[in-house]
């Protein structure tokens, strides 16, 4: 659990607009994602029809934060229609033990710290 907090605090998750419109009630922050029973990085591979407020998507799992294995995670998940997700993009998802993922945020890794100046000196 601490590793998840450390990893997500070191890297930022970009896209403030999506962050505000997609996470469900109680999921406005990374701590909200931690309330989910399954937290993973996935790439959406295929979109299916909508069922009420949700749309089915096939996913390719990239990395599991919780649980450490994928025994309780399905390769077809339900994402709220309000999320406006795009096939082929990597997302951080927080789901219940079924396949409903109410926390869906685009996952873009950008270091918060800028690297030190790496310019080469002309002196030998």
From TrEMBL:
Q: Which domain of life is it from?
A: Eukaryota
Query: Can the keyword Signal be found in this entry's annotation?
Result: yes
UniProtKB keywords: Signal
Signal sequence extent: 1-16
Q: What is this protein called?
A: Cystatin domain-containing protein
Originating species = Ancylostoma ceylanicum
């Amino acid at each position: 659990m601490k590793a998840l907090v450390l990893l997500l605090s070191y890297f930022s998750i970009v896209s403030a607009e999506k962050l505000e419109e997609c996470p469900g009630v109680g999921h406005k922050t990374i701590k909200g994602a931690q309330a989910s029973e399954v937290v993973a990085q996935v790439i959406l591979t295929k979109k299916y029809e909508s069922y009420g407020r949700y749309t089915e998507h096939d996913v390719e799992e990239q990395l599991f934060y919780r649980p450490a294995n994928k025994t309780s995670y399905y390769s077809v998940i339900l994402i709220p229609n309000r999320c406006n997700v795009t096939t082929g993009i990597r997302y951080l998802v927080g789901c219940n033990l079924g396949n409903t993922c109410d926390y869906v945020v685009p996952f873009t890794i950008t270091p918060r710290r800028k690297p030190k100046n790496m310019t080469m000196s002309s002196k030998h």
